[in-house]
Design brief:
Two copies of one chain form a homodimer. With 331 residues, chain A is an alpha/beta fold. Among the domains of chain A are: 1-6 and 15-45, no CATH class; 167-290 and 323-329, Rossmann fold, CATH 3.40.50. Helices cover 45% and strands 18% of the residues of chain A. Chains A and B meet through helix 4, helix 5, strand 2 and helix 7 of A and helix 4, helix 5, strand 2 and helix 6 of B. Chain A binds a DNA duplex (16 and 16 nucleotides) through residues 1, 3-5, 8, 13-20, 22-23, 27-29, 32, 47-48, 50-58.
Chain lengths: 331, 331
DNA sequence: CTGTTAGCGCGTTCAG
DNA sequence: CTGAACGCGCTAACAG
């Protein structure tokens, strides 16, 4: 293993000079920079991240907290998209990302979580899929001992940013389109919402309520808990008497469509997310596509900015209205 | 941040003693151990992993190399299962896992990859989804500068283990069951195989060849490249004249089933993997379920053993024959 | 069995 | 603009 000292010797300078060159410090003569870089290339030197973070009071690492459904055989596509986007961006930015599942923090107090993260050299956190019930995480963010970026949770403070698409607008867009496209008047709309205590669920619901006022239709709301089965049950009960079924997620939309098929009635259904799974449900439908990979990448980007001293803020990502049909995936 | 020195002072011992207690060294009196542990609890001390790995010549971290299809919107379920299993096990074992995508290593030489990993404090590697074309990875393993565990690639040397289900046997099992269950004689079987240069593809193919000899049926083989579209095309061409269609993956099985539906003929189809997606394909079929999460966990376990001095070996994981029907996922 | 001390590889003052 | 020296938190000899 070649160290900074080897490089210094090779370039005929002091170790500190090499360090400064590597970290792009000012006030180094062009000539020295060139000599050092040459030595680095010749010796194939890569700074040791471990030593680096230890020495620099180790605040560079980023914890990526997420909540995959590790109990079931199915671990969802969205989580993987998030991970991929974050990991790739972290690689680009040369920061270390520490994936942490919520389950690893279970029955830990805020203090314990903080010491754990500190012991890992974590300075910033990105949280995906936090709900109002995650009390420990809530406090973690509020205490501002780290720089935080929340995905899909609208909380901002001096050291906390959030990133999300405009959930309310997106829900309105996709629902409006589905309702307008429907031949014949849509007087009665069934909305299958998400979780009771979810941030995004509430925003999407607000969007539907607004739309109902704007377009003046009857809206009946039932909580599907983001479960396909619940959505199926709800649709079996209330699907027939409504003209259009709007779901707060694709998975629930699949459940609703299946129920309609079983009942042998047809009503337009729309979803939310744009997951590939939809391509396998057989039917067509409108949905909102969020670019999860890009959202996660932006989250990592933002936490790096915060670590560099930026103020917390809201970042709204664009969404896209799509009509899903049969897709081919090559794995 | 409380350090080992604080603990030492609190317990009235030397830092090295604390270190020894924390790392479960022998030759420490019960009494001292108790006193130290007490101080640790009181101060809520968590050893700093960064400093630890720096001091101990940093060989503890494990790189988890995998190859998700980051280009498409769909990033597959199997990859996420692997990640979850590995991450969870690493948490349990208190080792750090460094997820690395193949794409991050592109156009790097073996030497560069090695220095990169070294600079990250990596001592062991787990590789998922390596193919015969991944020349750099092949050499990385052969050079034995790290402890390696390969998933689904049968290579063993002094510092390399591999983990896999018995691909040949599993393929035989699922195909035999599907063929035997079929009413009427199955004289002609279509096998849609995987990639040309894949390790597992070849083993599965060998299984089919053996089975054809054992059960004495005609076998026609076509390479589906693990692509749903290719499988569909192949089935459209050759599906009708065969009695049973055996596919080397679930995704291809979906493609084959779709083709049969379009052609309005029925033949039994079987897949391989047991992914949840299958539940959305609508039809029923036999498949092999591998527990990817457990496989990844075992891989991490094995690399830790290798790092502790164990010899490379082959680890065969159990597989399960299942009949897939409609499933409900709660996301 | 326990304590002292010298690094691990790097960042960072502070003299020169 | 450069370099010597100290320390990050911990482990690993070596003394005692």
């Amino acid at each position: 293993m070649t160290t900074i000292r080897d490089v210094a010797k090779r370039a005929g300078v002091a170790v500190s000079t090499v360090s400064k060159v590597v970290n792009h410090y000012p006030n180094i003569s062009e000539d020295t920079i060139r000599r050092v870089n040459e030595a680095i290339r010749e010796l194939n030197f890569v700074p040791n991240t471990i030593a680096s973070s230890l020495s620099s009071k180790q605040a560079g690492r980023i914890a990526f907290l997420l909540n995959p459904n590790t109990q079931t055989q199915a671990i969802d596509e969205i989580t993987m998209q998030y991970m991929a986007g974050a990991l790739l961006k972290a690689g680009e930015l040369h920061v270390e990302l520490l994936p942490v599942f919520f389950s690893m923090l279970e029955d830990k107090s805020v203090e314990e979580v903080e010491t754990y993260l500190h012991s890992q050299g974590v300075g910033g956190i990105v949280i995906c899929g936090m709900s109002k019930d995650d009390y420990v995480l809530q406090r973690l963010v509020a205490r501002e001992h780290f720089k935080n970026v929340l995905v899909d949770v609208p909380i901002v403070n001096a050291s906390t940013s959030y990133i999300s698409v405009d959930q309310k607008q997106a829900q309105k867009d996709v629902a409006r389109k589905t309702i307008m496209d429907n031949q014949g008047p849509s007087r009665d709309v069934l909305y299958i919402s998400g979780k009771q205590n979810g941030y995004i669920s509430e925003e999407r619901l607000q969007g539907m309520l607004e739309l109902a006022r704007e377009l003046d239709f009857n809206l009946s709301v039932h909580s599907g808990e983001f479960s396909e089965r619940r959505a199926r049950e709800i649709t079996l009960k209330y699907g027939e008497v409504n003209d259009v079924i709007v779901c707060a997620s694709d998975l629930m939309a699949i459940g609703a469509m299946r129920a309609l098929t079983d009942m042998d009635v047809f009503h337009p259904v729309c979803g939310f997310d744009g997951i590939t799974l939809m391509g396998y449900a057989g039917k067509q439908m409108n949905t909102v596509r969020q670019n999860f990979k890009e959202i996660a990448a932006e989250a990592v980007n933002e936490v790096v900015k915060l670590l560099a001293g930026a103020e917390g803020r809201a970042v709204i990502m664009p969404h896209e209205l799509v009509r899903l049909e049969y897709m081919d995936i090559i794995v």
